[in-house]
Amino acid sequence: MLRISVAVTTLAWMSVSAAAQSADPVPSIVEAMQTLSGKGAKHRPSGAKGQCYTGTFVPSENATKLSSASIFQATSPVLARFSVGGGNPKVADGSKVANRGFSFKIDNGGRGQTEFVMVNAPINFVKSPQQMLGFLQARLPGPDGKPDPEKIKAFAEANPETTGQGRWLANQPIVGSWVGVAYWGIHAYTLTNAVGAQQVVKFKMSPTGGAVGLTDEEAKGKPSEFLVDELAGRLASKAPTSFDMIAILGRAGDPTNDPTARWADEDARPTVKLGTLSITAVEKSATCDDAIFDPMNLAKSIEGPKDDLLFPARTPAYAISIGSRL
Ligand code: HEM
Any idea which of 41-45, 83-87, 109-113, 221-225 has the lowest mean pLDDT? Predict the structure, then answer.
């Protein structure tokens, strides 16, 4: 979500360096993201461009075999936001390098509220907050107002796993529809059913209308903004706007601590369809912008990973960020 380059002053660069000395890296991470996306800006420093929607989630019968969470027991309302990655609110919708984000709250405001902040890649670009800080610091402009390509190269060489998400995205077609691409929850979650049986899973949202990919040439022919209109057209014509929520089943010994790595044979694993999430209407931006999507806010019987350092860094980062943009 972080492919951004905006000239900043030497002063801003120095203040980030000072803040980075503190023990908890999260405030420094957010500060670095804000520096890169435009200090003082009111847009998000990641997923800056996006649109808010409402929808519904209809659980499938099999879901309760894995989890007794209330969202799997009845149809629930959904609040969702699709985004184009990075901190530039004017990024072209046909960008090749940016990822696409899908944040949603199921049963928004209800007792079983469950939130996910997903992207259209099965892995993240860093595995820990410290590595994220290093990734960002390598991209901060120096005293001349420009990032140093040598620093970026040296960081990538010393942290090869941080290049995996970009490589994965580069091998995919350009996203032609926010509802025409799969999104992953990336982290490993644990589901608990009514008799206490537990299953480690990764979440994937799979578009029911199939993938809509553009070649580089096709994307160049598109206006800078086409994703909102594409989805509006689907809503008007009742074309598919849904995703199957899929649980990819983990096996004993699968690591749960590394969001930069896929499980062995992950695409060939058995899966369980947990339900169908449908986007049904455009929602005013303020409804999504005035609150965060909090990946740690999960209904009972859905738990995030305990040994993944990145997972618990997300909620405080989003909280700091919204504090500066409201
Ligand atoms: C698997 C890891 C991650 C994924 C998939 C991810 C994805 C996203 C997405 C899709 C958004 C846009 C949210 C929206 O539409 O409202 C976002 C925003 C953001 N992300 Fe992440 N993110 C990850 C980890 C992190 C971490 C570890 C941090 C910092 C420690 C972070 C910091 C932020 C911030 C500050 C925002 C802006 C939030 C706001 O102002 O509301 N992210 N992220």
Answer: 109-113
> What is the token pair recorded at 281?
């209407």
CB of 310 shorter than 6 A to ligand 1: yes
pTM (global) more than 0.90: yes
- Among candidates 121, 165, 113, 111, which has minimal Cα distance to 294? 113
Check residue 23 and give its pLDDT.
86
84 Cβ closer than 6 Å to some ligand 1 atom: no
Determine the distance from the C-alpha atom of residue 28 to the mean position of all C-alpha atoms in its chain, rounded to a whole number: 20
Among the atoms of ligand 1, which is closest to the Cα of residue 33?
35
> Which phi and psi (to 5°) does residue 202 adopt?
-115, 140
- What is the whole-number distance in angstroms between the Cα of residue 118 and the centre of ligand 1? 9
Distance CA 154, CA 151 (A): 5
* Angle formed at CA 230 by CA 225 and CA 231, multiple of 5 degrees: 115
Identify the CA nearest to 144 among candidates 13, 33, 29: 13
Q: Give the domain ranges of the chain.
A: 49-135+148-309
Q: Which CATH topology does 49-135+148-309 take?
A: Catalase HpII,  Chain A, domain 1 (2.40.180)
Q: Please indicate whether residue 25, judged by its CB atom, sits closer than 6 Å to ligand 1.
A: no
Of the candidates 178, 214, 3, the residue with the CA atom closest to the CA atom of residue 98: 3
pLDDT digits (tens, 9 = 90+) for 122-168: 999 999 999 999 999 999 999 999 999 999 999 999 999 999 999 99
Q: Tell me the chain's radius of gyration from C-alpha atoms.
A: 19
User: Could you tell me the two tokens for 32?
Assistant: 């670095």
Kindly report, residue by residue over 57-82, the tens digit of the pLDDT: 999 999 999 999 999 999 999 999 99
Place of tokens 């049986």: 197
